[in-house]
Amino acid sequence: MKMSQNSSGKDDQASGSKKPISLPISRVRLIMKSSPDVSSINQDALFLTTKATELFVQHLALSSFNNGSGKETNSLSYSDLANTAQETETFHFLTDILPKKILAQDYLNSLEQMQEEEGADY
Amino acid sequence: MAERPEDLNLPNAVITRIIKEALPDGVNVSKEARRAISQAASVFVLYATSCANNFAMKAKRKTLNAGDVLAAMEEMEFERFLEPLREALEVYKKGQKGKKVSEPKRKDKEKKVDTENNKSRAEEGEDDDERMEEEPEVENEAEEEEEVEN
Asked: Which GO terms describe its molecular function (chain B) (predicted)?
């Protein structure tokens, strides 16, 4: 009975231990192998990295949602993620690929300011 | 290895499903946010691989193993993943043995899981095991040649 045959999302989650991983191992392997100094990876390490990536995705999504501004509107936005990357120690390594967005006008203003400051030195 | 840059992305449908499962029901995740999480996941894989590889290199091993990945998680301060990872690995190992041992009920389950799982990796995933075993041998040969030269 508990091994129900339906494959709804709920069931997937409940049967997390039965269904080991949902991300494709072959793709994770390709990403790992793209790192130049990695020569070979055993099957267990590959499995663990894939599983860890799933945990990471859940953890990043949930932390960003909980710290984010979208709790009232029930939404998760890019800026929630960028804020989490910046504010949470363990997610710092993401700041390069999750830059905070600023308006072009603000950027130009700060650029101008920097140039003025530099100019003052000469 | 990767011929196109897209090869280093993880499948969006799967990432979206994992995000949905993690969040409370009905949360709307913007397309931009989903893409960002997917990219973050790829970077996570690279970061974890690099950390794990450092541990393997320190131990003078060429092949990354489970211990290296777990040590990498600790180094990256994702200790919270350690326990679920250990449990998952145990289940995974049991499942692999179970495939050969006759255990009808279990087999049925696994078949179902397999068909679900393999949609995306059916074409490329099947020869994974073979390749995994081939590579270390190739390297051993290379090492031997080096020794001869010296």
From this structure: chromatin DNA binding; protein heterodimerization activity
User: What is the tens place of the pLDDT at every residue in A15-42?
Assistant: 444 567 899 999 999 999 999 889 999 9
- Chain A contacts in chain B segment 34-93 (CB below 8 A): 36-37, 39-50, 52-53, 57, 62-66, 68-70, 73, 76-78, 80-81, 84-85, 87-89, 91-93
Residue B70 lies in a domain: yes
Q: Which residue does chain B place closest to A23, by CA atoms?
A: B14
Q: A35 and B50 in contact (C-beta within 8 Å)?
A: yes
Flag whether A15 is in a domain: no
The partner residue sitting opposite A52, judged by closest CB among B73, B87, B91, is B73
Contact A81, B30 (CB under 8 A): no
CATH of the domain at B27: 1.10.20.10
- B69-114 per-position pLDDT tens digit: 999 999 999 999 999 999 999 999 988 877 665 445 544 545 554 4
Burial A4-41 (b: 16+ CB within 10 A, else e): eeeeeeeebeeebebbbbbbbbbbbbbbbbbeeebbbb
Structural domain including B61 reads 1-77
* ipTM score: 0.76
State the count of interchain CB pairs (< 8 A) between A and B.
239
Q: Does B138 touch chain A (CB under 8 A)?
A: no
